[in-house]
């Protein structure tokens, strides 16, 4: 039974109801693996790194469901054909009838340009997709983890943001399909927990970066690295003093697994508390990757949060988690991956032309 008892405001969030019984076959000796895990959005950037980590454990069988809107089979190439791995082309807005013990529910485009591309579809993914996955969790007695977002805090008036902060969100803005969608998804998680006893976990993920981000993803770290490698100006959106905190993907995946395996429902912030303005980030990328590129100020989009930094006290206390990789150490790891992938597309040269097959 989940033990996290409050959202920080003293409001009781737990249920006394027992979760539904798991499949009687879960611990059957005839089963090769002990744990069958569904990862929705497992072909995406964070999802595929999570799959890599889960597959390291020989007792895990991993099923990925992805519609490939922003994910790619390339990210999972090394697991295709593996006896403990299965890949399904599936859109979570449709029900999925399978037998699993755990569900990591990641499916949703995360880059603002992609989630704004078809906002109605984004909100369907967050609301109907989460309902479908909760329905699955209820039917088979699985534990479900939702990857929520720091965007639930909107343009925060409290800084840094603790989980107890309820946020400052525009319900009718261009980002609402994502941030309000994730807020409803969190509500659904807690309602299924209270009403049906479902075992839930909620992670609020702050900006994350690393290898396998889509090169033209539109997010700031991927944009700056690709621009630096192509010798194009780094596009800082006005005013440039807005801040973000960037977590390297391996740290984030470690936090997700600790949350799933631990006793706390969350919500728990997962992010790196190091805070940078976008001008500072551009200067760091320039210095580390290509000192000859220009930094250019460009127009911003509406509702861009002015500041964002996680308070990770809860993650430290409840999960024993804190990020290890500093931005200056993580950026070169991502640069190498981007250099190889861009080199493969023959857009730039590689440092070592023989390493192309290590690009993912
Ligand atoms: O080329 C760019 C792109 C972005 N930016 C700025 O960089 C900041 C970060 O923008 P991103 O698009 O990377 O990400 P955002 O912080 O807006 O949203 C992200 O928040 C957390 C996650 O849940 C999601 O991955 C995503 O929604 C913004 O202030 C944006 O204006 C630039 O200055 N230049």
From TrEMBL:
The keyword Iron does not apply. Keywords: Cytoplasm, Decarboxylase, Lyase, NAD. Residues 1-13 have a biased composition (Polar residues). GO terms for cellular component: cytoplasm. Residues 38-332 form the NAD(P)-binding domain. Its cofactor is NAD(+). CDD domains: UGD_SDR_e. Residues 1-24 are annotated as: Disordered. Pfam families: GDP_Man_Dehyd. Its main location: cytoplasm. Pathway: Nucleotide-sugar biosynthesis; UDP-alpha-D-xylose biosynthesis; UDP-alpha-D-xylose from UDP-alpha-D-glucuronate: step 1/1. The keyword NAD applies. Belongs to the NAD(P)-dependent epimerase/dehydratase family. UDP-glucuronic acid decarboxylase subfamily. PANTHER family: UDP-GLUCURONATE DECARBOXYLASE, UDP-GLUCURONIC ACID DECARBOXYLASE-RELATED. Catalyzes the NAD-dependent decarboxylation of UDP-glucuronic acid to UDP-xylose. Necessary for the biosynthesis of the core tetrasaccharide in glycosaminoglycan biosynthesis. This is UDP-glucuronate decarboxylase. It comes from Sphenostylis stenocarpa.
């Amino acid at each position: 039974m989940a033990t996290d008892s409050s959202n920080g405001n003293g409001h009781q969030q737990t249920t006394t109801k027992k979760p539904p019984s798991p499949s009687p076959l879960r611990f059957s000796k005839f089963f090769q693996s002990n744990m069958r895990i569904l990862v929705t959005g497992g072909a995406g950037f964070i999802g595929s790194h999570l799959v890599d980590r889960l597959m390291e454990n020989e007792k895990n069988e991993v099923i990925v469901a992805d519609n490939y809107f922003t994910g790619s089979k390339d990210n999972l190439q090394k697991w295709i054909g593996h006896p403990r791995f299965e890949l399904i082309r599936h859109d979570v807005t449709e029900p999925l009838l399978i037998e699993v013990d755990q569900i990591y529910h990641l499916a949703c485009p995360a880059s603002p340009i992609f989630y704004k591309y078809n906002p109605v579809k984004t909100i369907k993914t967050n609301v109907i997709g989460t309902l479908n996955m909760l329905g699955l969790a209820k039917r088979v007695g699985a534990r479900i983890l939702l990857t929520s977002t720091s965007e639930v805090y909107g343009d925060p008036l409290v800084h840094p943001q603790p989980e107890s902060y309820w946020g400052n969100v525009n319900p009718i803005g261009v980002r609402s399909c994502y941030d309000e969608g994730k807020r409803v998804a969190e509500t659904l998680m807690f309602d299924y927990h209270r009403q049906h006893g479902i075992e839930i976990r909620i992670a609020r993920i702050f900006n994350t970066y690393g290898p396998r981000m889509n090169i033209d993803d539109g997010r700031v770290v991927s944009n700056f690295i690709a621009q630096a490698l192509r010798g194009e100006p780094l596009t800082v959106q006005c005013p440039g003093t807005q801040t973000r905190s960037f977590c390297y993907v391996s740290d984030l995946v470690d936090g997700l697994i600790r949350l799933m395996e631990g006793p706390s429902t969350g919500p728990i912030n997962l992010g790196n508390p190091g805070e940078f303005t976008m001008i500072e980030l551009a200067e760091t990328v320039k210095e580390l990757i290509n000192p000859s590129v220009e930094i250019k100020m460009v127009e911003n989009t509406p509702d861009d949060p002015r500041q964002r930094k996680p308070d990770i006290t809860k993650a430290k206390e409840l999960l024993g988690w804190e990020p290890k990789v500093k931005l200056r150490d993580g950026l070169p790891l991502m640069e190498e991956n981007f250099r190889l992938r861009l080199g493969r597309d023959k857009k730039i040269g590689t440092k070592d032309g023989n390493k192309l097959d290590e690009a993912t």
